[in-house]
Amino acid sequence: MADPELPFLPYGRQSIDADDVAAVARAVEGETISRGAQVSEFERAIERRTGAQTAVACANGTAALHMAALALQLQPGERVIVPAITFVATANAARYVGAEVTFADVDPDSGLMTPETLAQALAAPGTGAVRSVFPVHLNGQVGDVAGIRDLARRHGLSIVEDAAHAFGTTYAVGTAVHRVGACDHADMAIFSAHPVKAFTTGEGGIVTTRSSDFASGLAFARNHGITREADRFQDRDLAFGASNAPNPWYYEMHELGFNYWITDIQCALGLSQLAKLERMLERRRALAARYEAALAALSPLVRVVPRTPGCVAAWHLFVVLIDFAAAGRSRAEVMNALRARGIGSQVHYIPVPWQPYYRRRYGDVSLPGAAAYYARCLSLPLFPAMTDVDVGRVVAALGQALNIPA
Ligand SMILES: *Cc1c(COP(=O)(O)O)cnc(C)c1O
């Protein structure tokens, strides 16, 4: 039975302190509460942290993916390769601009797309030129992005990293250490600031890039396709007055864009959250290490996902791989047993090509790595306010749910 004394542990949740509350209160009383100074300040803070040339903040991570697809100028009928294990938004972004999705398989243990599964996807039948690949840093881990980049470049593909799980992750290529979001192996990277992610703005998203062209495309996509920069104006008669000065009311719409703005109130929360990001990430990493040590007792029925060498992950999720058949318990039974003990868990993710929308569009695709990952994965609670005792509680409850003698 659930002990009423013990708090429910969701699989993830935000960390909000008094300084976050104060920052939001100050922002809401500010002169501008949207599209103002806090938004730019937040973007500059993201640039400093990631090392990217430009960060563009927006309404949510899904909008960030859509903006990236718009900045790439993907056309209807062109194809984007997306790993099968991700949140639906990664694939949907391609569909928003009319592009088609080819799903790549993933490594059955890490859940990550590899150069090999990307090569298989490139060779898969499909109509329309493959233009782009959207790798996903599942759980906060980065796979072989250098291998993926080399293969993508050989095929002339642009690369957008879905780094919604990986704000704060660093990874090694050879002896060099890279920051996710710096775009050392991609054209753009996107982040989400949803409450369960590494830090939150309530709802929020960010795209980073090193390219001024993509930065400009992102700005158009966020703001209705509108520019107010005089040197970009196309209609000189409408734009400029007698003295050749730009008319003060004037703006031009060049593309079909969206209103994907984020507010100053949200960005004030983001800035306050970023100030303690390192502490929150360290806590996630410490909890992950503690889980890993405690879960050794449940081996071999329960294993942690393999760690990418040289990658210091932000650990958005703490995923274990469970041999449910060998344990004689279904995943639903295990999740229900955990819930009865006040412990939340979740499955990240149902393979996206299995969603009825995508099955209707593309039929059945055989992706054995994704199927094997999906069959075994379970996300256990992980958020900075968890205690070491909470980790022990989760591991003990999991052992009981799987009928593993203590
Ligand atoms: C959270 C998430 C998104 C979407 O972010 P939102 O801010 O919720 O729109 C996209 N991709 C992945 C992998 C995510 O986890």
Please supply descriptive tags for the structure shown above.
single chain; 406 residues; alpha/beta; Aspartate Aminotransferase, domain 2; Aspartate Aminotransferase, domain 1; seven-stranded mixed beta sheet; three-stranded antiparallel beta sheet; globular; binds pyridoxal-5'-phosphate
Describe, in short, the structure shown:
The chain has 406 residues and is of the alpha/beta class. It has helices at residues 18-28, 37-50, 61-71, 88-96, 115-123, 145-154, 212-222, 236-239, 264-274, 277-295, 324-327, 331-340, 356-362, 368-376, 388-401, and strands at residues 54-58, 79-83, 100-104, 130-133, 158-162, 170-173, 176-179, 188-192, 205-209, 226-227, 252-253, 302-304, 318-322, 377-380. The radius of gyration is 22 Å and the shape is globular.
Outline the secondary-structure elements.
Elements: H1 18-28, H2 37-50, E1 54-58, H3 61-71, E2 79-83, H4 88-96, E3 100-104, H5 115-123, E4 130-133, H6 145-154, E5 158-162, E6 170-173, E7 176-179, E8 188-192, E9 205-209, H7 212-222, E10 226-227, H8 236-239, E11 252-253, H9 264-274, H10 277-295, E12 302-304, E13 318-322, H11 324-327, H12 331-340, H13 356-362, H14 368-376, E14 377-380, H15 388-401
Parallel strand pairs: 2-3, 2-4, 4-5, 5-8
Antiparallel strand pairs: 1-9, 6-7, 8-9, 10-11, 12-13, 13-14
Bound molecules: pyridoxal-5'-phosphate.
